[in-house]
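Quick one: examine the sequence and fold tokens given here and explain what the tokens say about the fold. Here goes:
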Amino acid sequence: MDNPTETLQVLVADASHEKYVDTILKTIEDAAKVRGTGIAKRTHEYLATKMKEAKAVIALDGERFAGFSYIETWGNKQYVTTSGLIVHPDYRGRGLAKRIKDMTFTLARTRWPHAKIFSLTSGAAVMAMNTQLGYQPVTFADLTDDEAFWRGCEGCCNVDVLHRTGRKYCICTAMLYDPEEHLPAKIPQEVIDRIKKLEG
């Protein structure tokens, strides 16, 4: 085959993709062991729900699982995370992670255009992709204070670091995309309010 990525499809997952959830969870777990890093543990039900809610992206080679990631909103949809990015070992080195990351980022921006998008990662490749998309490294204080998000870290083997530092930092690097920072100029709120009245 001339182009090894030709048969790989990256698409927004739906309920029909639930059959891949156990394979996804095993692939994530195996990758964390190989890297020796922590990862927030997710359940079959959690990932299946993300698929049903159109909050997940899956990569398939025909019927074979190749990669995955999902998004979630926090703090009244003011924040969105892109999480769980994984590529099956058989498909690494083909640029698939970037395609998946681009799709989750586009999905998040389309659904919640004014939300800040963040990512916690210990992987250099994900940091590089985030940087290309416009994410900036930030402190944990710049992220959501939604307790439901932070409970997701409880299954990570490094959670003791998070607790010891009072949730100020951990092994992961926090990266944030702020849509307002990517406008050419920031329009004052009073001007936005005036425009809304004129258009109303």
User: Anything to note?
Assistant: The beta strands are 8-12, 56-61, 64-74, 79-87, 116-121, 136-138, 173-177. The chain is about 35% helix and 20% strand. The longest strand covers residues 64-74. The chain has a mean pLDDT of 88.
